[in-house]
Design a protein that fits this description.
Helix content is 43%, strand content 13%. It is an alpha+beta fold. Among the domains are: 73 residues, OB fold (Dihydrolipoamide Acetyltransferase, E2P) (Beta Barrel), CATH 2.40.50.100; 55 residues, no CATH class.
């Protein structure tokens, strides 16, 4: 709304006389929005639009980074997502055969032992994109004993690209459901529902323990070590003992498909019991996974006969 210029005619100090001698009541002019209120209004509207953009800008891994930014992000220990974003873009440049990307290869070897699981997980995938990378093979072999099942699995999948089947057991493990046990005795204070899709590290239950000094507020968060879908889960209010199974999480479709592709190349007869369940015609098994499972079985049996 624009502010109208003031009239050049000075206002009357007294209202004009009415025909009957009385005064005519002048209508009160409507007051518009003040300049300050306008500024506040537009500033608020601008922030409402800006904040989602800033969040997207800072979290979207597809935003292209310059060489200088890549170097900064790979060393930004305060923001693990920056390191992940840089790793993803290094991986993309590797697949495009960008010769300049080799300057960051020592960083990839260094990050194989980073304390953040998500960083190690991404790093294992990136190192598998170039089998000529100096130090990559040795770093991946060490990652087969990582504390995270996902890091071990990604390292094993990458090693297959090197023609190395050392991680075959870890690949077979990617086809298996995760069995989550209670770290302490207590009762389930809250729980998700079976059938719910869950991401890696996603919260599936809270366990109220008898010794609250172990968890501060008396509740331990139970999280999924893998992405997938909850097959079974103890009900809210159930009492559980330390070491007792709380939940079972089936692996996600992408994880299963990648494992089956790798076993197509390095799988053995003893791996078939883990593969055959994915050949079933079930709603939770996609056609792509089912087809890959059958092709993997045929490849393994063919190798066994030769």
């Amino acid at each position: 709304m624009s502010i109208q210029p003031q009239s050049a005619i000075p206002p009357l100090t007294d209202p004009p006389p009415s025909p009957n001698g009385g005064n005519v009541l002048q209508p009160r002019a409507k007051r518009g929005m003040s300049r300050t209120h306008k500024l506040l209004f537009f500033a608020t509207a601008w922030l409402i639009c800006l904040m989602p953009f800033l969040f997207w800008w800072n979290t979207w891994f597809g935003r292209k980074l310059s060489d200088q930014q890549l170097n900064q992000y790979l060393h930004d220990t305060r923001k693990p997502r920056h390191i992940q974003q840089a790793l993803v873009q290094v991986g993309e440049r590797v697949t495009r055969h960008d010769a300049a990307v080799t300057q960051w290869y020592p960083d990839l070897v260094r990050l194989a032992s980073d304390p953040v699981e998500e960083i190690r997980n991404t790093d294992a995938w990136v190192m598998g994109q170039d089998t000529s990378g100096a130090g990559f093979h040795d770093a991946l072999l060490k990652m087969l004993s990582d504390s995270s099942p996902m890091v071990r699995g990604n390292a094993a999948l990458s090693l297959v690209r090197f023609g190395d089947a050392s991680g075959r057991a870890q690949i077979v493990a990617l086809l298996q459901p995760a069995h989550i046990i209670a770290p302490e005795s207590g009762h389930i204070a809250d729980a998700d529902r079976p059938g719910t899709a869950i991401h890696q590290g996603g919260l599936i239950a809270k366990l109220a323990v008898a010794d609250s000094s172990q968890s501060g507020d008396g509740a331990l968060e139970i999280r999924s070590p893998i992405p997938g879908r909850i097959r079974s889960l103890a009900q809210t209010g159930a009492n559980v003992a330390a070491g007792e199974e709380i939940a079972v999480v089936d692996p996600g479709t992408e994880q299963v498909w990648e494992a089956l592709r790798a076993l197509y190349l390095v799988g053995q007869i003893e791996d078939l019991p883990a593969i055959l369940p994915y050949e079933r015609d079930l709603p939770d098994i996609s056609n792509d996974v089912r087809q890959q499972a059958m092709e993997t079985e045929r490849a393994i049996r063919k190798r066994a006969r030769s």
